[in-house]
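From the pipeline queue, job 12 of 40. The input is one protein chain; the requested action is below.

Action: predict structure.
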Amino acid sequence: MNSTPPHPKVTIIQVAELAGVSKSTVSLVLTQPDKVSDTTREKVRQAMAELGYVYNRDAAALRSKRSGLVAIMLPTLDNPKFTELATTLQQGVLERGFVPMLLSSNDELDTQQRLMERLKESNVTAVILCPATGTDVNWQNALNNSGMVIINVLREVPFSEAPCVLADTQRGAFLATQALLEQGCHALALVGGPSLSNYAHFKEGFEQAVHLHPGTPSSQYIPCNNTRQAGQQALNDQALAQVIAKVRTDDRAAPVGLLCASDQLAYGVLDALPSHGLSVGKELKIVGFGDLPDSAVLPCPLSSVAYRSGDLAEHSLSILTALLSDQNVPRRTLIDVTLIKRASCL
């Protein structure tokens, strides 16, 4: 019985000859496509398709001791900002010739640790990580020193050796507090925040704006989780309730300004206002942080500090490329923020 001879394996050299480029250029298209022009990349990919060339990632991983997988681990995918960041990072990882793996730690240290152990066993190329709240710096440094490439994004692990890419929360808090003061608020409250890895910078921006304002307005801190549920309870804070009571009984009293550490927290405050007989924009001026999509379409649109997920992803991926090429990278990269003014602070 005659057998069909095996189809000869297409080589990278054949692809290079058909595309009219060098073998090293084809390798770059396969492993670091961002370093090749769009025109050349398209020629090489057309040649691959025409010849039926299939890149053997397992063999390449054995040669390079890297799997070709890049993990993207976020605390949750329920938050629209995390979803947007995950989508942008995933596309960028694909464009750089790697296979993205999307994971959620549920913001739990134990889950994050177990996932990291599995990724380490799988010889993952790198992990772009938004650390779970309370991540231990010694634990992360041990992973980093073991050769695992880690890039922290959106949250910082103080004193970690892994590079991080962050929104400039200090500048954001400063701009938001300035806006509240410009609206005549002489009593201010910073609501939420302590669970933020960069809370100290957030608080410092708030305090700088207060101290630079003539007369130095009164300010207070209401520590709570950065959730909608916590925001619904924030107005029950005794010190804040006393300040608000004065506003309600004196039509000439200046409004109270609230800087919320997240838009979701601000949503909770807005939810609770009617039950306290308050209205946003009159007795209270409110600014959130993160500029979620719903903030622009609320009955009273929420002023918020915005940052671009695309900027976070772009810088994170540039650092990834540099690290894999053994280049030095900055330990801390700040992404600029913008204050979007809407009815809640006008």
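Job complete. The longest helix spans residues 80-95.
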